[in-house]
Amino acid sequence: xxxxxxxxxxxxxxxxxxxxxxxxxxxxxxxxxxxxxxxxxxxxxxxxxxxxxxxxxxxxxxxxxxxxxxxxxxxxxxxxxxxxxxxxxxxxxxxxxxxxxxxxxxxxxxxxxxxxxxxxxxxxxxxxxxxxxxxxxxxxxxxxxxxxxxxxxxxxxxxxxxxxxxxxxxxxxxxxxxxxxxxxxxxxxxxxxxxxxxxxxxxxxxxxxxxxxxxxxxxxxxxxxxxxxxxxxxxxxxxxxxxxxxxxxxxxxxxxxxxxxxxxxxxxxxxxxxxxxxxxxxxxxxxxxxxxxxxxxxxxxxxxxxxxxxxxxxxxxxxxxxxxxxxxxxxxxxxxxxxxxxxxxxxxxxxxxxxxxxxxxxxxxxxxxxxxxxxxxxxxxxxxxxxxxxxx
Length: 392
Ligand SMILES: Cc1ncc(COP(=O)(O)O)c(C=O)c1O
Description:
CATH superfamily of the largest domain: Type I PLP-dependent aspartate aminotransferase-like (Major domain)
Order of helices and strands: HEHHEHEHEHEHEEEHHHEHEEEH
Strand content: 5-15%
Shape: globular
Bound molecules: pyridoxal-5'-phosphate
Distance between the termini: 54 Å
Largest sheet: 7 strands, mixed
């Protein structure tokens, strides 16, 4: 016997009414097409085609054969927290005690912890537009509001101190979230500019949250951790991108020592801990630089190919792709409806790409994001198909 569902009239909560993550919607549609035989070129998700480093896989295999995989401390395995603390000394020359490192289920888990730990419901957090969609959608789900800072190609997708001060004057802010290199633009905020922004955030009394998930993936531009510019900055990072561990759901935060216990209590109650097997394996990722740099060389080549071939097809306005693995391209010459454009590109040319409204609910309709985290062969085939599609 089955009981018929009868939805309650009051429906779902208003805060659950978040927008879809369009890149994931396109991925679902692309998988559905592949399941019935389509040969899809995936340029929609920011997911490395390469597997995690060999040492990571070996550590995971050994962990499976070991003594079970129970809960870990909610802040993460001490050995992983220590290794991450050492990474900050090695790469950025900044002292971080392991007690300040919190291991999270992907950086996505870090945003939930940070927004809950730092802000009261109803407060405004400044985000730049275009930006990663989950920021605004998680804020909404947690009853927080977004204060938008509009950026464009000319200002390299970076806010100025003046932008922040003006927004704060009209919509008092509690925090500012920055991403460098950013998604979808790939643009890097230069260290001296980061210093100015951090100083302004401090002057205005705002928390600075720095999403550093694309660190390690730059093509000549210098990046620095926000910790070198604001000792109280909240750092969010992940093993998903440079370390090629998307599905392992593991990331980390660095938080001020005086807040570590707050983050621990939230983590205990919200997720208990990040997956134990991923934590054990991630320790090995920091010593796999040689292998990971080979992957990065593939992204660099893919980037050169895209930047070389797109202009000849009439796509010649994009943000400076200093890092990450995306081109955020203006397609206004072809369409002012990038959702429709992406849908046709998928159905007619079997190329999956992400429409701009994912990243910019106001001006995104004339942009398309192309990910070059896949193989060079995928990128080249996608470009051949795109050229034919644009001519038709
Ligand atoms: C800027 C940015 N931050 C965070 C994430 C979330 O990554 P994860 O939860 O896999 O660490 C992504 C994923 O694409 C991203 O692009």
